[in-house]
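Journal club side-thread
Mid-discussion, someone asked how the predicted structure for our own chain would compare to the paper's figures. Pasting it here so we can look after the session.
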Amino acid sequence: MTISRLLIAAALATATLSACNDSTSASSTGTISVKVVDANDAGVQSVNVDLYKTLADGAILWRAGSTSSNGMAFFGVDDGGIEAGDYYVHLTFVTGYQLAPGETNDKPVTVQGQDNVQVTFRVVQVGPSH
């Protein structure tokens, strides 16, 4: 009786350790990179970039950032990752730019597992040239 209990306990311990080490049971997160470029494909700095998580009854602001000198903003790289789900990216301009003709704001993005998704926006300069 004691040997069978030990065998059962050993089998349960092995199964538990196997489940804990299973890479599919770990939380998978991805990243989203946003690229904002002008008509010459040059990066546009200082564009506010908001990432909204889509919910059944709307959306909530999930992360916020702004583009660097190369026109890039990153979500999930240095902050624990972006969990799988549906999102959209929204731009707000504080510089002399607007979305290019035919370009749309609020671009949908789906992250699945460890996806690294890139979203690109094309913009044009408004007002006087510098």
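Post-session note: The radius of gyration is 23 Å.
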